[in-house]
Amino acid sequence: MTTYIIRRILMTIPILIGISIISFGIMQFAPGEPTALDLDPQISPEDREEQLDAMGLNDPIPVQYVRWAGNILQGELGTSFITNRDVGSMIWERMPNTLVLMISSTIMTMVIAIPIGIISAMRQYSVRDYIFTFGSFVGVSIPNFWLGLMLIMFLSVQFGWFPVGGVSTLGGDFEILDRLHHLFLPALVLATADMAQMTRYTRTSMLEVKNQDYIRTARAKGFKERRVIYKHGLRNALMPLITMFGLLLPTFIGGSVIVEQIFTWPGIGQLFIDSTFQRDYPVIMALTMFGAGLVVIGNLIADILYAIADPRIEY
Length: 315
Description:
Elements: H1 2-29, H2 35-38, H3 45-55, H4 61-73, H5 87-122, H6 127-141, H7 144-158, H8 176-209, H9 213-220, H10 225-236, H11 238-262, H12 268-278, H13 281-309
Helix pairs in contact: 1-13, 5-6, 5-8, 5-11, 6-8, 7-8, 7-11, 8-11, 9-10, 11-12, 11-13, 12-13
C-alpha cells in the first residue's frame, strides 16, 4: 500500500503541472488586466508601464509562468496585486471558515443520506421510498444559489429563525451555539445536492446486495435484521459510496464559492470570487492549485478506502 501511495503521489505531479499551465494560460488570455482596477485612471502611460514592469506583467507569459512556478516550489504563493499582502496568509486566514463549512456539510451528508438510502432500499416501492426518491430528485435539481436565496428569504427574513449571513453575531462574544446557528443554513445548502446523490447511490447499492446469497445465508442463520443490513449488506454496498465520497471534496470547494458568496461567509470561496473580479492573478492561481490538490487527495483517499472496505483489493 505504501508503494502504491508513493506511486500515486508521483503520478499526480505531471497532472498538477498540466493544470497549472492551462490555468495560467487561460488567466493570461482573459480580457482585462490586474492594473485596470487598481491604477489611477489619470496615470500617465510612462508611469503605467513602469508599474507593469515592477509587477512583472510586461514579461513574456512563459517567463511569468516559470517565475511563478519557481516561487511555488520554494513555498511562496506570491503577493496579492490588490492588497499587497502575502497570498498564503490571506488563504490561511480564511481556511478555517471553509473547513468548518466543508466538514459540517460532509457530516450532514453522511448522517442523513446513508440511513435514508438504506431505508428506501429495504422498503422498496413503499410510501417512504417514493417520498425519499422524490426528495432526492428535488435535491439534485435545485441550484445551490436559488435554494440559498429562498432559505434566506423565508427562514431568515420572514420568520427570523436564522441569521442572514456571516459566521457569528457582530460584536458578540464567541459562543458555540451562535456559530452553529450561523453555520446551519450554509452547510445545509452546500450539502443538499450531495445528500440527494448519496441517497440515490446508497439505495441502488443496497438494492443490488440485499438479495445476494450471503444476505440470505445470514438471515437463515438467524441473525438480527439490523446486523444483516449494517454488517453484511452495507459493507458490501460501500464501494460506490466510497467513489462518491472521493468526489465530494472538490465539489464542496466548488459549491462553497457560491454558498459563501450568498451567505457572506468569509471563506476561500468568497476570496476566489473577489480575486476573480479584481483579476488578482496570484490569489486566483493559488486557489486553483488548491482545488486541484483537493481533487488529487480525494481520489487518493477513495483508493485507500477501497482497500480497507474490501480486503480482496490489492495494490
